[in-house]
């Protein structure tokens, strides 16, 4: 089976700062590092490192060939990444001494993925494969419609959050993954909560250090709590993406969802003890040996 990921590819510029700057404040960074990132790239790497097949659908600019090489090195199928005229997307990431972050994203090529590439990629998909999307690319609704017709499991990680984006594809979704703030934003804007009116079979709400909540149609939407592993965070960037990738990889490999969430929780906990994004996502062997 395969996890097809219509996802962003970014160059991450990570600045270590003593604290996150307030409006109007200028502070000096202690260091700067460039790495591979973007929610899409992070999730593809996490899927691959969790032992599942990840196929990435995306775009880079002429300056982004290094990112494709890095994804390939990490085990991601990159045949459906196209070079376009726009520059590669990038993110400016401030990380403070407590591991918290503030991020500014420039979409660039991520918003210029050709429709033809999405169609060509998904033409190779099989019923039961997973189609994963986030809100950092174009062609989300187009991909969801094709994926639904092909019998794929449609999963949406609703970040960066947009009510319009998530509600546009919600009728096609099998799983919705979002954090507690995003769930509250969705509820405030639409009145929807996990349940029959939302119409999504599985909803996973992440809550950072408090773990996550799972809502399933098969269990009459009764919330189930899964605690987070207790660690001292160094950098929280990419932890949610790691969690998502590991959950979907576990499900793709036939795990019960409870086991997939447990594995993903350990992966996310290990991730926050590392500095960086896609380049430092833990592999399956590390996660299996991590007790937290």
TrEMBL record:
UniProt-recorded name of the protein: Ribokinase
UniProt pathway annotation: Carbohydrate metabolism; D-ribose degradation; D-ribose 5-phosphate from beta-D-ribopyranose: step 2/2
E.C. number(s) listed in UniProt: 2.7.1.15
Gene3D superfamilies with a match to the protein in the record: 3.40.1190.20
One example GO MF annotation: ribokinase activity
One Pfam family per UniProt: PfkB
Entry similarity comment: Belongs to the carbohydrate kinase PfkB family. Ribokinase subfamily.
Gene: rbsK
Coiled coil, from the record: none
Binding site for substrate: 10-12, 38-42, 136, 241
Subunit structure: Homodimer.
């Amino acid at each position: 089976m395969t996890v097809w990921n219509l996802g962003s590819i970014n160059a991450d510029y990570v600045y270590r700062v003593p604290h996150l700057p307030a409006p109007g404040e200028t502070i000096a960074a202690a260091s700067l590092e460039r790495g591979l990132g973007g929610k899409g790239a992070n999730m593809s790497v996490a899927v691959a490192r969790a032992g599942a097949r990840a196929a990435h659908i995306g775009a880079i600019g002429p300056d982004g060939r290094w990112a494709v090489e890095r994804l390939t090195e990490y085990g991601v199928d990159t045949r459906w990444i196209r070079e376009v005229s726009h520059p590669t997307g990038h993110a400016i990431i401030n990380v403070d001494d407590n591991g918290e972050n503030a991020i500014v994203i420039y979409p660039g090529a991520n918003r210029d993925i050709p429709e033809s590439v999405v169609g060509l990629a998904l033409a190779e998909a099989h019923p039961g494969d997973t189609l994963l999307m986030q809100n950092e690319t174009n062609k989300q609704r187009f991909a969801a419609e094709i994926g639904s017709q092909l019998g794929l499991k449609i999963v949406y990680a609703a970040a960066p959050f947009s009510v319009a984006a998530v509600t546009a594809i919600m009728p096609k979704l099998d799983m919705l993954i979002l954090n507690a703030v995003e769930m509250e934003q969705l509820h405030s804007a639409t009145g929807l909560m996990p349940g029959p009116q939302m119409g999504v079979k599985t909803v996973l709400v992440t809550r950072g250090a408090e773990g996550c909540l799972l809502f399933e149609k098969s269990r009459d939407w009764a919330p189930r709590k899964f605690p987070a592993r207790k660690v001292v965070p160094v950098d929280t960037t990419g932890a949610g993406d790691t969690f998502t990738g590991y959950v979907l990889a576990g499900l793709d490999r036939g795990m019960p969802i409870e086991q997939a969430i447990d594995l993903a929780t350990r992966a996310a906990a290990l991730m926050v003890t590392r500095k960086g994004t896609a380049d430092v996502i833990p592999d399956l062997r590390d996660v299996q040996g991590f007790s937290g």
